[in-house]
Amino acid sequence: MALYNKPTIHPRSALKVASGIGLGFVLAGIHLASNIARAEPAVSSSLDQQHLCRVTVWELDKVAAQCQPGQKVLFLPKSFGDQHIPGVFAALHCDLRYSVAMTQGAVACIYLPVKRVTAPPRN
């Protein structure tokens, strides 16, 4: 009468298999995340890198009359003094999914105006 010998799996072999499966999931997750991170913003198909819209004012209606969404915009105010104005311009007119070049007196970015501005609550 022959005894049936069950195949034995060495604990290290089982660990290698489990690690390999786990590594596969990790690599798949990294691949998926990198593809999501590389996804272009929705406006990318309408980017206009050939034209530059130069403005000297920051007001929404005045900039909208001169620039088209997706166009490069360069804000060069007529005078310097208020260091907050470039930040206000960037917040109102720049597509912040792309790089914004800003100094104390100028802003260059991809134009995408805000839809609405919410006023702070009154106390």
How does this model look, in words?
The protein is of the alpha+beta class. It folds into two domains: 11-40; 45-110, no CATH class. Helices cover 34% and strands 15% of the residues. The protein has three helices and four strands. The protein has a four-stranded mixed beta sheet, with helices on one face. Helix 2 links the parallel strand 1 and strand 2. The radius of gyration is 28 Å and the shape is elongated. The N and C termini lie far apart (93 Å).
Mean pLDDT: 75
Radius of gyration computed on alpha carbons: 28 Å
- Spatial order of strands in the largest sheet: 1-2-4-3
| Spans where pLDDT lies below 50 across 5 or more residues | 17-41
Which structural class is indicated by helix and strand composition? Answer: alpha+beta
Helix content: 25-40%
- The proportion of strand residues reads 15-25%
The N- to C-terminal Cα distance equals 93 Å
**Biggest sheet: strands, sense, closure?**
4 strands, mixed
Question: How does the overall form come out from the CA principal axes?
Answer: elongated
Note the total helix count.
Answer: 3
H/E order of the elements? HEHEHEE
